[in-house]
Design brief:
Blueprint: H1 3-17, H2 21-34, H3 39-51, H4 55-68, H5 73-85, H6 89-102, H7 107-119, H8 123-136, H9 141-153, H10 157-164, E1 195-199, H11 204-210, H12 213-219, E2 223-227, H13 233-236, E3 242-246, E4 257-260, H14 264-267, E5 301-306, H15 316-319, E6 335-339, H16 346-349, H17 352-357, E7 359-360, H18 368-375, E8 380-384, H19 387-395, E9 399-403, E10 424-428, H20 436-450
Parallel strand pairs: 1-2, 1-4, 2-3, 5-6, 5-8, 6-7, 8-9, 9-10
Helix pairs in contact: 1-2, 2-3, 3-4, 4-5, 5-6, 5-7, 6-7, 7-8, 7-9, 8-9, 9-10, 11-19, 18-19
Length: 454
């Protein structure tokens, strides 16, 4: 590879590291065009297509690599990951098994095998794979993190939360903590009389879910300062026991020790029995003026509906429901739907005639406080796994949470009820990517609520 192509190749890899797969692919196509027989540029091009969700293009590049390098373990492992992502789990399992026949301890292939088994519903098998893998690769951060998520999903909280601390070493996970100079709070360490700063990490839903532990810290004698995204400050500053609530970037309050938000179950040494599931938030103040007419009620069952999450989310393909599948809900009598889609909006997803039947309030909710006021006036909330689900649960609203076949660790694997939110019922896919039975069950449950038997 000459110096000009090398510069473009290196720049493309930087783009990939920055999460810019389209820019990376543009450069890599040029490099591959000049060096078609080279393995590495084509492998990175396949990765760029994969990151950009151009799965057909990624598959084509991996097939060409398989033709040129039929025994290459990394190529086999990457193709397995792609096949799994597009729902072809049996083929993915066969592919990754071939990789492991050639290199039984290959960390990337073991990681892919665990994920494939999860998506096939074999969580015990995934746990066994990860447990074996981390013994061979004790410093491999992604393996340790994936092992933690399986343990947590299976209900092994104490081991799972301890293992989850490896998330900070997984650079591709993108967790960046606000820099602080104080020591980190250790598991089991006393907090009585100490000022504890809870450092924000990860998403809005995580902040809503794990902020409940600020109150538990206060009950153990701590003076608690909570950091959270600006959009949640007004909601979370009302948590019992919180001395202050502020967003990263604002002046740090004085504190003696700090703890990352999602380390609290580990630091506090909590098991599922410690989670009461009681409501811990409420909409602050009165209904905002711009929502005054939006929260009026009639005699119909009023249902908040959110069926799609942020399309940029890594797992959105599995967690969001195609809009066309909602058609049966349009004919429900005695039910008034209030749409709380934010990104994408209801107008982005639905035909205009649907919006004449259903009231779209997503665009009028300019803050989580607005959403909280709307949710408090709903009879039922129906939502996929987004921040709205956590807000509804924290407010204690009756909620039907619609989950994919391989759910996020926090929802467990079998129960119809959430340990985290007492008012939340879990409706699970029985087959991967098949939402129709889930929507049909929602129809039946809402129909029964709207027209109860005398």
């Amino acid at each position: 590879m000459n110096s000009g192509l090398r510069r473009k190749f290196d720049e493309a890899r930087r783009y990939l590291a920055l999460g810019k797969p389209v820019s990376a692919a543009e450069l890599l196509r040029e490099v591959v065009g000049h060096q078609p027989a080279e393995r590495e540029p084509r492998l990175y091009l396949a990765q760029a297509y994969y990151q950009g969700r151009q799965y057909a293009s990624a598959h084509a590049e991996l097939e060409e690599l398989r033709r040129r390098f039929p025994s290459d373990v990394e190529v086999l492992a990457n193709q397995a990951a792609l096949l799994s992502e597009i729902g072809r789990q049996e083929e993915a399992l066969e592919c990754v098994s071939r990789a492991l026949q050639r290199d039984p301890l290959n960390a990337g292939a073991l990681c892919n095998l665990g994920e494939i088994l999860k998506r096939m519903g074999n969580w015990e098998g995934a746990r066994e794979v990860y447990a074996t893998a981390v013994r061979s690769h004790p410093t491999h951060a992604k393996l340790r993190l994936q092992h933690a998520l399986v343990l947590l999903a299976l209900g092994e909280w104490h081991r799972g939360w301890a293992e989850y601390e490896h998330r900070f070493a997984y650079q591709e996970g993108g967790i960046v903590l606000e820099p602080v100079a104080t020591p980190r709070l250790a598991p089991g360490e006393s907090v009585s009389g100490r000022r504890v700063l809870i450092v924000h990490e990860q998403g809005l839903g995580d902040s809503l879910m794990f902020s409940r532990f600020a109150t538990l810290l206060a009950e153990r004698g701590a003076v608690v300062h909570l950091r959270c995204p600006e959009s949640l400050v007004t909601l979370l500053e009302q948590l019992p026991g919180v001395a202050s609530c502020s967003a990263p970037g604002s002046p740090l309050p004085g504190h003696d020790v700090h703890v990352p938000l999602m380390s609290l179950p580990h630091v506090l040494q909590l098991g599922p029995e410690a989670i009461a599931g009681r409501p811990y938030l409420q909409a602050p103040g009165s209904v905002p003026v711009h929502l005054a007419d939006a929260v009026s009620r009639d005699d119909r069952l009023t249902v908040a509906l959110c069926w799609a999450g942020n399309p940029a989310h890594a797992d959105d393909r599995r967690r969001s429901i195609p809009s066309a599948l909602l058609a049966p809900l349009r004919v429900l009598s005695g039910v008034r739907f209030v749409l709380l889609q934010k990104s994408p909006t209801a107008a982005d997803l639905l035909p205009p005639d649907w919006l004449r039947d259903w009231r779209d309030l997503g665009s009028r909710c300019v803050s989580f406080t607005d959403s909280a006021h709307i949710l408090e006036r709903m009879d039922i909330v129906v939502t996929v796994d987004t921040a709205l689900a956590h807000l509804a649960g924290a407010l204690g609203r009756p909620t039907l949470l619609l989950l994919p076949f391989a759910p996020d660790f926090r929802w467990g694997l079998e129960s119809e009820y959430s340990v985290w939110y007492a008012g939340t019922s879990l409706i699970r896919q029985s087959t991967a990517l098949d939402w129709q039975p889930v929507v049909d069950r929602v129809y039946r449950l809402l129909s029964a609520q709207a027209s109860p038997e005398p």
